[in-house]
Amino acid sequence: MKGYHIAVVGATGAAGTELLRVLERRNFPVASLRLIGSKRSAGKSVRFREEPISVQELDDRSFDKIDIAFFSAGGDVSRNYVPMACQSDAIAIDKSSAFRMDPHVPLVIPEINAEDVRQNRGVIANPNCTTTVMLMALYPLHCVFGVRRVFATSFQAVSGSGARGIEELKRQVAGKDLQPSPELYPHPIAFNLLPHIDAFLESGYTKEEAKMQGEAQKIMHLPELLISATCVRVPVYRAHSVAVSAEFERVISVEQAREVLAKAPGLELVDEPQSNRYPMPLSVAGKDNCQVGRVRLDCAFENGLSFWVSGDQLLKGAALNAVQIAELL
Length: 329
Fold this sequence. Notes:
Blueprint: E1 4-9, H1 14-25, E2 30-37, E3 45-48, E4 51-54, E5 56-57, E6 68-71, H2 75-87, E7 91-94, H3 110-113, E8 123-125, H4 129-145, E9 147-156, H5 163-174, H6 207-220, E10 226-233, E11 240-248, H7 254-263, E12 267-269, H8 281-284, E13 290-297, E14 304-311, H9 315-328
Parallel strand pairs: 1-2, 1-6, 2-5, 6-7, 7-8, 9-10, 12-13
Antiparallel strand pairs: 3-4, 9-11, 11-14, 13-14
């Protein structure tokens, strides 16, 4: 098997660290590995396949002789350095939102729109993690019943904010103060819910909520699909969940829906409510597959279905999806 020369930008962050684990675990054919970070991270040593690799500072020569460059360092870094990677003939797989809605950049979930990878011009975007978790269950249903519109509420773990989010929750949970002082978030996250992720738009929705509609339309090739989302930060360390109510073109039954979901790639049907078996963040944390359950006919929609889906946003929502894209390449 041919080996590939790989670069990982943001190698010491939460998503970058997870990506290295996935490359190792899936035995991706790595001929050489270049770990790239900020000036603060340069010189640190990271182990990959039992070998210590020194982190290099990001600069305009970072992508010389690189085949695939993974970007996990935020939108500003991607906007500045993805073009440099492309000029060096590397293919960039970008986790940030910088290029997701660019009409010339494929936005890919391999289980849904793998063929879009062929359209790349040097850049492939990784979708928003919450959008990915939702679509892993919604798309298989759409293929059979034809989705018309969706209402969704997300319950997003603090690891979606990176290491700082995890540390803030740990600090507040450990403290004796019932009103712990926030630093990263506008309000305490421990023992609380924050119905606010990313900036507010003029519409009253947040950017995170707008991403769920715009990205789903692009990935599913459904420009008219309507999704009304409310995104909530919750005091959970890892793994996002989404409550979904969807209306379909064709008549749908719970039995048919379960049959479709049980066969969907990358998805496990966990739907035994009488035995208290349903998807939970604790049950999907550290796992590749998303889980779906609480499947029931929606009482407000005609041809409607409601369900609950959970997935590890650092894996399927970020690192695993990126490596799956590289495997397609």
